[in-house]
Amino acid sequence: MALVYLTRRETLSACHRLHSKHLSDEENKKIFDKCNNPNGHGHNYTVEVTVKGKVDYKTGMVMNITDLKKAMNIAIMDTLDHKNIDLDVAYFANVVSTTESVAVYIWKQILPLLPDHVTLDQVKIWETEKNIVVYKGDSSLIMPKGSGLTKPMKLSADLADIVGKKEASRAECIKELWAYLKKNNLQDPANKQFFTPDKKMAKVFGTDRIRAFGMAKFLSAHLS
Fold first, then answer.
1. Cβ 20 vs Cβ 26: under 8 Å
2. CA-CA distance, 7 to 5, in Å (whole number)?
3. Which domain holds residue 89?
């Protein structure tokens, strides 16, 4: 079947300040100029995510565009839109929030949410009409299908009770966990990066409020 590239675009608004903890205040001002303003500044970012894969002869699709939309909403819109990137997104606590870094962040967040039969090709961000960043991932870190995030594994009874299946890859588990969070309204309305586990999830994640993008670190004890 033909190899086809599929792209979806979203627009979000966010603010940030370009400031590195590894530089002095004078160096920051010299390098980042007005973008180092202590009060920050905002952007209307346009983000494109492109995946590639073979066209399925049954559906005529590379992947369902609705599924790509859902993945982008979880990985991008819920975490970045109308946020202060430096203060609201834990990833940037020690990472300078340049558009280059935002592109890498989006890549890392959306990758485990995609189905196994497609490959994430690139993340493209328009910071302005003239300033554009493209990230295509680190080829040295790309794992073959069937290994790492995509390797089928057996789930513990507690994790299977949430995910709805006894065998799944880490990527599938993460995807289903996100769906469970949204379906049961467990995310913190003030900051959707965090959630408080219900009775089912507490058996896997404990009872404390945790960061949703940190769910993966709890899975090892429930996968074999």
1. no
2. 7
3. 3-141
Give the closest residue to 120 by CA, choosing from 71, 163, 59, 169.
71
Tens digits of residue pLDDT in 92-126: 988 999 999 999 999 988 988 888 889 999 999 99
**C-alpha to C-alpha distance for 51 and 63, rounded to whole angstroms:** 9
Query: Is residue 122 within 8 Å of residue 6, measured between CB atoms?
Result: no
The token pair that represents 114 in the structure block? 């995609």
More confident residue, 195 or 169: 195
Structural Rg of the chain based on CA atoms: 19
For residue 164, the tally of other CB atoms under 10 A from its CB is: 11
Which of 139, 133, 135, 129 lies closest to 109, judged by CA?
A: 135
Point out which residues pair with 123 in neighbouring strands. Answer: 49, 135
Alpha helices in the chain (DSSP H): 25-32, 65-72, 78-80, 85-88, 99-110, 157-163, 170-183, 199-205
Active-site residue set: 35, 82, 127
Please tell me the distance from the alpha carbon of residue 216 to that of residue 176, in angstroms, as a whole number.
12
Q: Please indicate, yes or no, whether the overall pTM of this predicted structure exceeds 0.85.
A: no
Give the end of a domain, one of 90, 122, 141: 141
Query: Are residues 186 and 83 part of one domain?
Result: no
DSSP 143: P
Are both 187 and 203 inside the same structural domain? Answer: yes
